[in-house]
Prior knowledge:
There is one protein chain. It contains eight helices and five strands, in the order βαβααβααβααβα. The protein has a single domain (2-202), classed as P-loop containing nucleotide triphosphate hydrolases (Rossmann fold, 3-Layer(aba) Sandwich). The chain is of the alpha/beta class. The protein binds adenosine-5'-diphosphate and thymidine-5'-diphosphate. The site of adenosine-5'-diphosphate (ADP) has 14 residues, from α1, α6 and α8.
Amino acid sequence: MFITFEGIDGSGKSTQARRLAAHLEHTGRDVCLTREPGGSPGAEEIRRLLVEGDPDRWSPETELLLFTAARRDHLERTIEPALAAGRIVVSDRFADSTRVYQGAVRGDLAEKVDRLHSLMIGREPDLTILIDMDPGVALTRGLSRNSGEDRFEEFGQAFQVKLRDGFLALARAHAERFVVIDGMRTEEAVAADVAKAVTARLDP
Ligand code: ADP
Ligand code: TYD
């Protein structure tokens, strides 16, 4: 099973992906916890080009190519081998991030995003958990990490508002694989809903 977490910056995806992986391992499952951009040595190198530096460093088009290159490497070297070995893959972001950030908000590249995806990636998650969050709270949480990886946070709150709408629209368009979870609660409350959504699909 291939599970992805999506949502705006600072919404709690990494926290929840970690918690879900620990929960599944606790119940005896073999889990591969990974992330994008990154998740393989080559893709982690590309990640640095994307998340550090000036917001205007790349055009939306160049960004789309870099994210797709990183995803292809991640898919070939990490995701597909893990799925083939029967492991559950939990990824912090995947192709829906490109659909929203590059396809809908950063540039109007929706058609190019879809064409590149079918040409080079061609895989969808079995389940996507969208952590939905107020952009103001998420931005404060995200920037307070001082991670040095704030290139996208630097685009500001109006950008995050558009991202949230973009993710919610995507969830409506792909209701068969999306579960939307309210992220404005304690970590534990969010994690309980995530575990419920995953268990319902693992043991129907
Ligand atoms: P993302 O991966 O979506 O950017 P993180 O999981 O890194 O988000 O969380 C961003 C920050 O918010 C971190 O400092 C994290 O500890 C904190 N955080 C995560 N979930 C919650 C929550 N439910 N309530 C309060 N703070 C949270
Ligand atoms: P991430 O490390 O998940 O950031 P955060 O923890 O702040 O949510 O991802 C880095 C940034 O890359 C994030 O701002 C979203 C952006 N991104 C895209 O624009 N397109 C993509 O395809 C992916 C995977 C991420």
